[in-house]
Structure formats: C-alpha cells, structure tokens
Amino acid sequence: MKRPPLNSRLAAFGTTIFAEMSALAVSTGSVNLGQGFPDTDGPDRIAEAAVRAIRDGRGNQYPPGPGVPELRTAVADHQRERYGLVYDPDTEVLVTAGATEAIAAALLALVEPGDEVIALEPYYDSYAACIAMAGGTRVPVTLRPHGDRFVLDLDELRDAVTDRTRLILLNTPHNPTGTVLTREELAAIAALAVERDLLVVTDEVYEHLVFDTAEHLPIATFPGMRERTVTISSAGKTFSFTGWKVGWVTATPELITAVRSAKQYLTYVSAGPFQYAVAEALRLPDTYFTGLRDDLRAKRDLLADGLAQAGFAVFRPQGTYFLTTDIRPLGESDGIAFCRALPERCGVVAIPHAVFYDHREQGAPFVRFAFCKRTEVLQDAVKRLASL
Ligand code: PMP
Ligand code: GLN
C-alpha cells in the first residue's frame, strides 16, 4: 500500500538556502557572506547579564508564557520612547523564540485556510513556508529595481488585494533588497489596509539598521493602523546575538491573544535567562545603537566599493546588513548557478535572490552579500572577488 506523502504542505520548500550555503562555505573554506549573522558577538555586558541570570537562577525554569515581565516592560518602553507607540506590557506584548516563531505564530493564528496573504517579493524564506503551513495562499507583490533602490509599486499592491485577502505581510527594512519603506509608501499601504479592512503583520527585525537619510517608521504609527497591526522584532540583529532567539510581538490584546494561542503550542516558552539579558540590552544608551549603525555603514561601503570594482552593479542598501548586486555586468545571468560556482571560483559564498521569488526569473540576476563581518574578513572577500 502506498503511504500518503510526508509533509505535503512543505514538500516544495526543501532545505533553506541559508543552511545549504553555510554548509558550502564550511566545506570549501570560503568566506561566508551568505547567511546573515555577525562574526563577532554583541556587547560583553549583555553576555554577562545572560550569565548572571543563569547563575542567579532567573529563567532556568519555564518562564511565563507571555515572556518575563522585565522584557515585556523593556519592549513596551522601547516602542514608546522610540516611536511613540504605547503598549501595555501585560496584554499587548508577547515574547517569542526569535522573530521566526513570531512570524509563524502570527500567520498560523490569523490566516484561515484559503485566505490570501500579500507578501513583498523577494520575500524572506520563512514567510512562504509559514503561509503554506497556515493553509493560506501567497500573493507576491514584487519590488523592482529603480535607480539604486528596489521599489514597491503601490498600484500593483492595490491590484493584488481581493475579497479573499486577509493580511499584508510587510518587511521593512527589507531583506534581501535593503529597501526601507518611506513615509509616503507606508502611508499608502496603511490607507489601503484601512480601506479594505486588512490586517498587517510587519517584520521589523532590522529596525535599528538604517543608514544615511533613511528612517525606520513602524506602520503601526500610521492612522488606523495600531488596531490592525502585528509588529514583530527581535534581538538577533540589533544586539548581534542571533543564536539567542529572543523575539517579540506588539499588538492589541485581541491580536496578541490570538498569536499567543498559536505560540503556546509551538514552543510554549523559550530562552529564559536570555530574556533578562535582552531586557537589559533594550535599555543600552543611544551610543550603542548609533555605534552599530556607523560600524555597519562603513562595512557596507567597503563591500559595496569592492563589489563595484569587481564588476558587479551594486544596490547600496538603506537598511539591513545585506547588499544586493546585479551580476549581468559580469556577463552572468543565473544567480543560482553563479552562487553555486562562486566558492570554487573565488572562495566566497553569497545568496541568490531567485530563491526568494515565486517567479524565479525575476530574481535571477540578483545576488545578496552580507556585510555584518569583521573588516578584515570583508577586505579578504573583496580581494577574492577581484579575481572574478
Ligand atoms: N525576518 C527577517 C527579515 C530576517 O532576515 C530574519 C533572520 N535573520 C528573521 C526574520 C528571523 O529572525 P530571528 O533570528 O529573530 O528568528
Ligand atoms: N535571516 C538570515 C538571513 O537572511 C538567516 C536566518 C536563517 O538562517 N534562518 O540570512
């Protein structure tokens, strides 16, 4: 007798590109500019806070389901002080196992089978998988290169909304393109969400990684949005502790209750002692956040200049720690083949955009490089890439 297929909803997804490419970096001894993680850890005093929490017996047993009160309060204070968004730490903040679990729980809670979910394409890989797990249908709206930026076509977004659209899944600053949605773009998205009565789930994990004149604006701050927005962020990018997996959600009590109902059956709780450390991290002085930005901006420029010299067309990102290139000036057109060959050709690993598209041909010539690495590592990568 033939067995029914295993994991039919996820069969299309296979291994994540990040796992594949990081393994390739290790097996070929390449410089890994693929998966986005820093190669230096976050502040010592925050690491010490985690050690102290473990030694003091804080969080070593199951913490409360919504997260420890210290962290929920720190998240609420962060949202109020930075953005003027007021959330009750007891009913409007939920701690999760990284943003990844927050995304999964939000989609599982809020999407009914058959609902359509609009996502900006190229989209972060877990979005597609989580929409599929929720039984929803993904409706991509493509960001297209325009000048030095990938741009959202607001008419296309409007046209993508149907009677079955349940929510818009946003991501700003945007991985992989580095686009930071502007006030005008966000206002238009907000107006559309209000007009069509849509929920918005917004992934803002790169909220502190914005450069030059770009400004991160949470969509929850726009008129009519607070009550329909689920905002997601995490400590991984902001504090350079991607392995700790501490994330959080802010939303109305009704939305938080819905997301928590899914979250409690995914992990119930996680990262007990790290939650105390992240509570401290969120209260670091402003100099920490500006220092992180300045450091990454310099690294962005180092890598962008090196890639341009090596012959790539470079989109200098306004946010995130990823930089997108177009490989066509190198006489290449297939980013997947290019990235698979790159370790052999010059000992560097990067990520092909195509895997983040439904219509892979649209992303084919684009390749993403991470610049959250030590300066000497980026210099080494630039030297290697110059041999192309
Ligand atoms: N969203 C985006 C856009 C990301 O790039 C990432 C990963 N780096 C995540 C979510 C996952 O965040 P976390 O590591 O906190 O789960
Ligand atoms: N968010 C990271 C990236 O885009 C990867 C995280 C992961 O491996 N899931 O590179």
Structure explained in plain terms:
The chain is an alpha/beta fold and 388 residues long. Helix content is 41%, strand content 17%. It has helices at residues 17-28, 44-55, 69-83, 98-110, 125-133, 154-160, 183-195, 235-239, 253-266, 272-281, 286-309, 335-346, 360-363, 375-385; strands at residues 31-32, 93-97, 116-121, 137-146, 149-152, 165-171, 199-203, 229-234, 246-250, 313-315, 322-326, 348-349, 351-352, 366-370. The strands form 3 sheets. It has an 8-stranded mixed β-sheet with strand order 2-9-8-7-6-3-4-5, sandwiched between helices. Strand 4 and strand 5 form a beta hairpin. The protein is globular. Glutamine binds next to loops.
Task: Give the secondary structure arrangement, pairings included.
Blueprint (H helix, E strand, L loop, with lengths): L16 H12 L2 E2 L11 H12 L13 H15 L9 E5 H13 L5 E6 L3 H9 L3 E10 L2 E4 L1 H7 L4 E7 L11 H13 L3 E5 L25 E6 H5 L6 E5 L2 H14 L5 H10 L4 H24 L3 E3 L6 E5 L8 H12 L1 E2 L1 E2 L7 H4 L2 E5 L4 H11 L3
The site of 4'-deoxy-4'-aminopyridoxal-5'-phosphate has 14 residues, from α4.
